TrEMBL record:
It holds the Pfam family Acetyltransf_3. It comes from the Bacteria. It comes from Arthrobacter crusticola. One of its GO terms (molecular function) is acyltransferase activity, transferring groups other than amino-acyl groups. This is N-acetyltransferase. The lineage of its organism: Bacteria, Bacillati, Actinomycetota, Actinomycetes, Micrococcales.
Length: 155
């Protein structure tokens, strides 16, 4: 059973552990320069939790904290982002969590980004109706290189 709930302080320990996996960082691409720096991680999450323009939820699978999902608004169009523990990939958790989150966050259009080789994430977004609207390039710390990412939008 997949559930979303507000983030609790204890969730941050799990989130930190999830983002330490090098292959998960590689797939996300745009991760922290040094994922093992807990101070930077905590500062980043305090910024998220204290920003009224960000809606963030903890993802639970059978009562266990397995990830997070959020929508933020840097510019005109809000964007969705998520992170699920690599050990739980391929179980339908992210797909279900995105669907539940989209029912809660109803502002449209809503955008998402994914590195072009993150096929699973792109497939999840397209399943929920996101369509490719553009591409961008940026330096991905986790890859130490400039990567291409797809910009997807849900109207």
């Amino acid at each position: 059973m997949i559930e979303l709930r507000p983030v609790e302080a204890a969730d941050l320990d799990k989130f930190f552990t999830h983002q330490l996996d090098p292959s998960a960082n590689h797939m996300a691409g745009f991760a922290a320069k040094n994922p093992s720096d807990r101070g930077v991680f905590d500062h980043h999450w305090q910024d998220i939790l204290n920003n009224p323009k960000i809606t963030v939820r903890t993802i639970l699978a059978d009562g266990e904290v397995v990830g997070s999902i959020l929508a933020y608004k840097d510019e005109e169009t809000p964007e969705i982002s998520y992170w699920v523990d690599k050990a739980r990939w391929g179980q339908g958790i992210t797909t279900e969590a995105v669907g539940q989150f989209l029912a809660e966050v109803t502002e449209r259009p809503l955008r998402a980004r994914a590195v072009v080789d993150n096929v699973s994430s792109i497939r999840i977004l397209e399943r929920w109706g996101f369509q490719r609207v553009g591409e961008a390039q940026g330096f991905a710390n986790a890859r130490g290189a400039v990567v291409k990412e797809l910009i997807l939008e849900l109207r």
